[in-house]
């Protein structure tokens, strides 16, 4: 448990300085100004020193704790081993006689606080092995290697704006109109997009018509990716380092055959469940945070807003640059986690 502030050696030393200055003849207001405390505080400790000759804080009277040292240690240990348990579950697990509020207080005193947990998919041993192998293989690469890599992905945007993640408000005002995050579910529209980015900014964004399949993906690669990458990023005949995930569409036979016929595309063997390594996922997240289609909740409105936000990121080239520069850190975290999730 953390020591009380009043038992802190630095606090006791400050009181000693008060007495030393007073015994040296310094006026009380000057002592208070020098030490940044009130005159009443200086006078109280001078009196205490004269009467009792001590500078320690007196023990305070009051109701004793309902938990023993052993129970407090049990609470802290259980929370560290099983952090997803609620205070009620921890209290019930140890059959403690007090209210779960007491358990929460002991956790706070022990420096353990409640936050919203990160939500990630479960990684199998095979997933972790593949992620770790990928990280070890590409960690030695220089930053320039990633800056000239083309990262691609698909994303679905809807006419419903993302709910607020937090709300600063006074207590007992949760349901006041200004503090409610209103979500319109009726008439919701959704539209899929495909896009690419590299270390110098976003590339192109295209709306996906209908249900996406392998043949459509080939058309996107042939009619959009190759021309736009050649024009904006990697000139002919340089090879194009190319990233896409392991979705069933990307792994379909027709797509694999097309890729084999285009050796200029050097496709990474990206690990399954490697979304936290791919910086374009963070680009989508940035777009979601800035997402608000307004009153036009049609497919045309979604497309207009998606392109508007995409172009706003293009005017901020440091966004993509910083995301790509973070890849070595992502790989290091994957290695440190033995193939587990990184913080990205």
Structural class: alpha/beta
Oligomer: single chain
Number of strands: 5
- The proportion of residues forming helix, as a percent range, comes to 40-55%
Largest sheet: 5 strands, mixed
Strand order of the largest sheet: 3-2-1-4-5
Cα gyration radius (Å): 30 Å
Principal-axis shape: elongated
User: What percentage of the residues does DSSP assign to strands (E)?
Assistant: 5-15%
How far do the termini sit from each other? 32 Å
- What is the helix/strand order? HHHHHHHHEEEHEHEHHHH
Number of H/I helices:
14
Give the integer mean of the pLDDT values: 86
- Name the poorly predicted regions: none
Summary of the model, kept short:
One of its GO terms (molecular function) is DNA binding. The chain is an alpha/beta fold. 46% of the residues lie in helices and 10% in strands.
Walk me through what this model shows.
The longest helix is centred in the middle third of the chain and has 19 residues, at 214-232. Helix 10 links the parallel strand 4 and strand 5. The protein contains 14 helices and five strands. It has a five-stranded mixed beta sheet, sandwiched between helices. It is elongated and about 95 Å long. By secondary structure, the protein is of the alpha/beta class. 20% of the residues are buried. It has helices at residues 9-23, 28-35, 39-52, 69-81, 87-93, 100-109, 125-138, 143-147, 214-232, 253-260, 280-289, 299-314, 317-325, 327-336, and strands at residues 149-158, 190-198, 201-208, 240-243, 265-267. Helix 1 (9-23) packs antiparallel against helix 2 (28-35), helix 5 crosses helix 6 and helix 7 (125-138) crosses helix 14. It comes from Petrolisthes manimaculis. GO terms for molecular function: DNA binding. One of its GO terms (cellular component) is nucleus.
């Amino acid at each position: 448990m953390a020591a009380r502030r009043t038992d802190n050696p630095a606090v006791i030393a400050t009181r000693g300085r008060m007495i030393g200055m007073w015994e040296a003849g310094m006026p009380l207001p000057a002592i208070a100004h020098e030490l940044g405390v009130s005159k009443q505080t200086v006078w109280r400790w001078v009196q205490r020193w004269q009467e009792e000759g001590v500078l320690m804080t007196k023990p305070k009277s009051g109701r004793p704790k309902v938990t023993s040292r052993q129970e407090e240690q049990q609470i802290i240990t259980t929370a560290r081993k099983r952090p997803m348990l609620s205070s009620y579950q921890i209290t019930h697990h140890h059959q403690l006689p007090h209210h779960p509020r007491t358990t929460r207080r002991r956790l706070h005193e022990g420096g353990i606080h409640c936050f919203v947990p990160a939500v990630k998919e479960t990684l199998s041993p095979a997933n972790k092995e593949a992620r770790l192998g990928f990280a070890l293989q590409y960690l030695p690469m220089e930053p320039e290697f990633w800056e000239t890599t083309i990262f691609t992905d698909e994303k679905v945007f809807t006419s419903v704006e993302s709910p607020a993640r937090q709300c600063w408000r006074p207590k007992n005002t949760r349901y006041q109109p200004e503090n409610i995050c209103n979500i319109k579910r009726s008439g919701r529209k959704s539209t899929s997009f495909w896009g690419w980015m590299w270390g110098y900014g976003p590339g192109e964004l295209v709306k996906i018509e209908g249900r996406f399949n392998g043949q459509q993906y080939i058309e996107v690669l042939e009619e959009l990716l190759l021309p736009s990458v050649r024009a904006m990023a990697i000139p002919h005949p340089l090879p194009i380092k190319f990233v896409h995930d392991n979705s069933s569409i990307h792994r379909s036979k027709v797509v694999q055959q097309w890729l084999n016929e285009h050796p200029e595309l050097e496709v990474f063997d990206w690990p399954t469940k490697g979304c936290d390594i791919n910086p374009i996922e963070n680009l989508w997240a940035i777009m979601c945070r800035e997402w608000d289609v307004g009153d036009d909740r049609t497919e045309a409105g979604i497309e207009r807003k998606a392109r508007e936000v995409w172009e706003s990121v293009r005017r901020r080239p440091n966004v993509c640059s910083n995301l790509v520069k973070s890849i070595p850190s992502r790989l290091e975290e994957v290695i440190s986690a033995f193939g587990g999730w990184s913080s990205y």
